[in-house]
Amino acid sequence: MARSTTTYRCTECGWTSTKWVGRCGECQTWGTVDERGGGTAAPGRTAATAVTHAARPIGQIDVETSRSRPSGIAELDRVLGGGFVPGAVVLLAGEPGVGKSTLLLEVAARWARGLATTLYVSGEESTAQIRLRADRTHAIHDSLYLAAETDLGAVLAHIDEVKPSLLVVDSVQTIGSSGVDGVPGGVTQVREVASTLIQVAKTRNIPTVLVGHVTKDGSIAGPRVLEHLVDVVLQFEGDRNTRLRLVRAVKNRFGPVDEIGCFDLSEEGIVEVPDPTGLFVSRHHQPVSGTCITVTMEGRRPLLAEVQALVSPTELPQPRRATSGLDSSRMAMILAVLSRRCGLVLGRSDVYAATVGGARLSEPSADLATAVAVASAATDTIVPSDLVALGEVGLAGEVRRVTHLGHRLREAARLGFRRAIVPRDGADATPDARKVPGLTVVAVDDLVGALRELGIGAGPNHYTDRSH
């Protein structure tokens, strides 16, 4: 006879154990191992039941009912892959205060302006508080319904009564079910609430947006299975010190995951920014040394960004190295290459490097612009304002190719830039990169050649004599 046993399973990764432990042995997460109830040691057998829908040839499946519908915000539609798909569940996550509720209220209002009933359920704010924000952002419409609920049963009752064509729940961690143990926001409650809302969305073809909180390390709070259950996972990013907000797709079953949407968050609400390049480039009244422009790729969108550097002599035995918006490890590597391969003396100077407008440059294509900016600041040489620099700098001082070179150069030419320094192998591999109208492309092999093209020469206070 099969012996009855009790198993324990991790709600994050699915790891199982025959006894309870406080920490998962697989993903090392605390407090996620729950009892799965009684079972049998012998494997069971599931009997066949009646099918819900008969299987049909793939060519006979109707796809018109699954076409996406624009949300009314072009930048959000770009990330979603065209808009909301009927029955799709979107999880929007972001840090507190980044503007998630403001964005979704604007989405709900624009959806309602299309004479489509919209239900906005908030578990964090009262309806009066939401109304005050709607007055400020001009998001008032008769087809937009508000409800403040924290009970899952009440939310389902609102859905039955309103019959919305779009559902927004803010947030999934504040809704709880009375039929499940645990407090709202716990692993069990979040899983139950999300599963129920996803089932409602699928059976009634209601596009649903769930707001998710994030932990201190930036990951989405709650069980990891939440991200697997939903169709789309969006990350809402932004620096509190700037107005720029980015929506990035982490998972998307209906579109690309390499697109971003740009928004401007102000007191009057959130506004989409179709061309955010000007936010990352400063305007100087007079030419100044220590600056260089590059073109970075955010998803499929090329964005111009400015790198600024300051090299200042110091009497400290340990010179300072500070970065903002740049990878500190790559910055240290670039300084080493400038010192060893180009002979630039930086051991007795503080070096500061930063981007403009809060841009974060993590891809290697910004290496050449960073190196040019530092060398320009060290030698007090002015880099032409109509020039962009693209390329990855290697430890041997070589300049390597970057992806989407032609796309980047066309964007630079569109914005009025006239010269570009690029890797030679990248220009040779992309013949159309040399044929961008209005743009003179200069191909270089290494960092020394790039600095020579810019007229950044050796000086007695900045370079060592490498002939001896």
Automatic annotation (TrEMBL):
Q: Which GO terms describe its cellular component?
A: cytosol
Gene3D superfamilies attached to this UniProt entry: 3.30.230.10, P-loop containing nucleotide triphosphate hydrolases
Positions with a binding annotation for ATP: G94, E95, P96, G97, V98, G99, K100, S101
Keywords associated with the record: ATP-binding, DNA damage, DNA repair, DNA-binding, Hydrolase, Metal-binding, Nucleotide-binding, Stress response, Zinc, Zinc-finger
RecA family profile domain location is 65-214
Tell me the Pfam families matching this sequence: AAA_25, Lon_C, Zn_ribbon_LapB
One GO molecular-function annotation for this sequence?
A: damaged DNA binding
Q: Which domain of life is it from?
A: Bacteria
Please report, in chain numbering, the residue ranges of the motif RadA KNRFG motif.
251-255
Q: Which GO terms describe its biological process?
A: proteolysis; recombinational repair
PROSITE patterns this protein is in?
RECA_2
Recorded hits in SMART domains, A to Z, give: AAA
List every stretch annotated Lon-protease-like. 350-468
Q: In UniProt terms, what function does this protein have?
A: DNA-dependent ATPase involved in processing of recombination intermediates, plays a role in repairing DNA breaks. Stimulates the branch migration of RecA-mediated strand transfer reactions, allowing the 3' invading strand to extend heteroduplex DNA faster. Binds ssDNA in the presence of ADP but not other nucleotides, has ATPase activity that is stimulated by ssDNA and various branched DNA structures, but inhibited by SSB. Does not have RecA's homology-searching function. Plays a role in repairing double-strand DNA breaks, probably involving stabilizing or processing branched DNA or blocked replication forks.
Q: Which NCBIfam families match?
A: sms
Family assignment? Belongs to the RecA family. RadA subfamily.
Report the domain remarks.
The middle region has homology to RecA with ATPase motifs including the RadA KNRFG motif, while the C-terminus is homologous to Lon protease.
Alphabetized PANTHER family for the sequence: DNA REPAIR PROTEIN RADA, DNA REPAIR PROTEIN RADA-LIKE PROTEIN
From the Swiss-Prot or TrEMBL record, give the protein name.
Answer: DNA repair protein RadA
